[in-house]
Amino acid sequence: MKLTVIPERCSGCKICELVCAFHHYQVNNPKKASLRVMVLYPHPVVRLPVVCQQCKDPKCASNCPVNCIHYQDGLVTIDQDECVTCHNCVLSCPFGAIFTHDDFDVPFKCDLCQGDPQCVKACPKQAIQYVPKHIIGQTQRMRHVLNYANMRQVEYVEAGEKKVLRYVQAPIPNRGNPQTGD
């Protein structure tokens, strides 16, 4: 299982940050969360939860001078007792998913809540999901196929009723309006 993010669904509410901080440290402080929702604006507005990818060959571990970061059973962990707080892991994480806080001596990161990620349960838009690894990439594959086929929607009939399934992330090139000749 792996955490994945669907940025199009994220509203930027940051409930996931609050739930994470409360679950791990019993505080209402999003700066103590093991994930961050990055919001960029004014246009286009982008809201993206940044979560640890639990890399199989983690850069953070490769750059740790005391080898206190380990990958085991699909989880990257930091050994708090061995860490010398050099913060090489924070700097080397390509996703920016290792964090520091003045209250803690050692950097911290997502531990998947021991296999039951609370951020997933709390996200009102289901922007953060905990899915089997083989499903990762399915959205990108579908988007690629839809873009290739220039599809935005599919019409179908269900129980005798005509319905339309819309694919919101499949932009179609401007081909002109066939009714007006543009």
Commentary on this structure:
β9 (153-158) and β10 (161-166) form a beta hairpin. The chain has five helices and ten strands; from the N terminus they run βαββαββαββαβαββ. Mean pLDDT is 88; it is low at 170-182. The longest helix has 11 residues, at 15-25. It has helices at residues 15-25, 59-62, 88-92, 118-122, 138-148; strands at residues 2-5, 36-40, 46-50, 69-72, 75-78, 98-99, 108-109, 128-131, 153-158, 161-166. Helix content is 20%, strand content 23%. It folds into two domains: 2-132, Alpha-Beta Plaits (2-Layer Sandwich), CATH 3.30.70; 137-182, no CATH class. It has 182 residues and is of the alpha+beta class. The strands form five sheets. Strands 1-8 form a two-stranded antiparallel ribbon.
Key words describing this protein structure:
23% strand; two-stranded antiparallel sheet; single chain; 182 residues; 2 domains; alpha+beta; disordered C terminus; Alpha-Beta Plaits; 10 strands
Sequence-ordered SSE layout with sheet pairings:
Layout: E1 2-5, H1 15-25, E2 36-40, E3 46-50, H2 59-62, E4 69-72, E5 75-78, H3 88-92, E6 98-99, E7 108-109, H4 118-122, E8 128-131, H5 138-148, E9 153-158, E10 161-166
Antiparallel strand pairs: 1-8, 2-3, 4-5, 6-7, 9-10
In short:
With 182 residues, the chain is an alpha+beta fold. Helix content is 20%, strand content 23%.
Strand/helix succession:
EHEEHEEHEEHEHEE
Report the strand count. Answer: 10
User: What's the tally of helices?
Assistant: 5
Structural class: alpha+beta
The CATH class of the largest domain, by name, is Alpha Beta
Output the radius of gyration: 21 Å
Largest sheet entry: 2 strands, antiparallel
Report the principal-axis shape.
Answer: elongated
Query: How far apart are the termini?
Result: 49 Å
Strand content: 15-25%
> Level of helix content?
10-25%
Mean pLDDT, nearest integer? 88
Number of domains: 2
Which fold name is given in CATH as the topology of the largest domain?
A: Alpha-Beta Plaits
Low-confidence stretches: 170-182
Strand order of the largest sheet: 1-8
CATH architectural designation of the largest domain: 2-Layer Sandwich
